[in-house]
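User: Modeling request: complex.
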Amino acid sequence: MITTTRRTALSMFAATALGLVAGAALTPAAQAADAIKIGILSLTSHSPSIIAEGKGYFDEQDLDVEFVSFQAAQPMAVAIASGDIDFGMTAISGGLISLAEKGAVRIIGGALQETPEIEGQKILVSKAAHDAGVTSPDKLAGRSFGVTTQGSSFHYMAHKIADKAGFDRSELKITPMQKVPAVIAALKSGQIDAWSIVPNIAGALTKGPEVVEIGKISDYIDNYQVTTVFTSTRNVTDNRELVTRFLAGLSKGIDDYNAAFVDKTMGADDVAAITGMVHQYVYADQPIDKAGPRIAAGAMRINSGARLNVASVEDQLKWFQSEKLAPEGVTMEDLVDTSFVEAY
Amino acid sequence: MSLDAADLEQPRRATADLQQNRHVAAVKPVPFRGGGFVHTRHRFVALFLFVVLVILWEIGSQTGFISNIALPAPSEAAGAMADLFETGMIWKHLSASLYRLVIGWSVGSLIGVTVGLAVALFSIVRAGVSPFVSALFPIPKIALLPLFIIWFGIGEGSKVATILFGVFFPTVIATYGGVDNVDRNLIRMGQSFGLSWLSIVRKIIIPGALPAILSGFRISASIAIILLVAAEMIGAEFGIGAYILMAGALFATDQLIAGVAMLSVLGLTVGWLISRAERWLLRWRA
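Assistant: Request completed. Predicted assembly structure:
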């Protein structure tokens, strides 16, 4: 006769549960695609991943993509370090370099880039500053320049303007405002004198009477590699094949983006389809007929094949170190892995 | 009048005899039970605990048990602090922050105590103002920062104003709460003795409310330090809050810890100063 005590019943239950968990952990991994998380900002420059997902380019690479939205570049780098997301695409920030030094993240490719033939980032001043005689960037000495945070790309651009225009970096009063909307508000109300920003935002601002355009960033920084693609160091060392597949999918998205918005070689129907995909994440609070033109306006070139301008990255790293915004010990090898894409 | 010692001795001895007659063998001294629940001063326990924690933390970081992404080693934070002293930047940061703290807190407290007294003493003011205090106190001052920028500019004005408003409301509440809790009997006694209204306020109400006002200061000073980081979010080149925010943006965790440690030291100093003030202002209680 079989007697079942409570203890044996419990252990049997535990064994079954363990078996179920083990089974659940094993089976899907053997079948389903690799799940990856991509960090995005609600900006048009993040469209390539969205297009690649929408058009199924990531599916072709057997990747199951989930997008995670961020408000700023800096938290995205931290989220990669913490393992919450796998891939990100933003400007090089002091935080990114610092995390690279700690062995957490690596740049694996390039994205948005200033090119002479395409409209790039603009240098703007407030109406009050313009009236006071700041009509060109070399007259910015002694003026305040809005940035989001110290060590942001805006800070870099401000100092590069000072370098080329021939006045001391310290003559620009760098004013941190934390967020882009705060910088816009301060510029419009004349609380800060100057700022630099991507063309679609600049275009919207200069339409009003409060803000005047006085120059272009491409005149002050050569072939500026504005944003880069990065991932965790763990992926770079242990999971190279996954990174390669991600970049392959992304590259096809980049080609579609450039064809649709930058080179405008794509048919109207295809452009509309792509705009619809991007609209799910960018300007999603506006109706499509309003958001569409804003998505298309002022699109900057994204490097095909995620090519990386290493010289520009090196110049940025040197600037961070010269301003003591990044640890001195960081080398290009800590920061960049050039083995995945064409580097020049 | 004089009491004869013998007279007192007599009945006491009588009861003792009585007890002895009842149980001759069991004379047990009753232990003193009134002790305990009293704070004794242990000067170095906190310091010891702090040192032990820091040593454990350092060991954890050195052995790699605590990853340097999660938390920098205390020695690294100390290095960042040493850099601040070496470059002299610490004085720039400290003086900028102290200026904002001192002006914001003292003006806020002064207006707060004044309004608090008015609310407590005049029913018409209480009826008018106290709902506003209840309505405005819970608004996070950080949420109003964009408006403060338009009203007071991105210079010192908006920073001082953020701290000032943060300090004002708790001070008002502490003050009128303190006045409400002054012993009614004392006020009636003053009235019976024919003291003027002003005398009662000056000699009974304000000293009576002072302990509550001072403990309100303790809270408002901490709120001021908390708001310092928020106040220095916008347009601040120097200041401890700006330093911490910059460290966060650069993911320079050693500098972050150094900055946070500065805030803690500031908090300790303020707490100590208020303790001194309490001891001096409330010496009549002893």
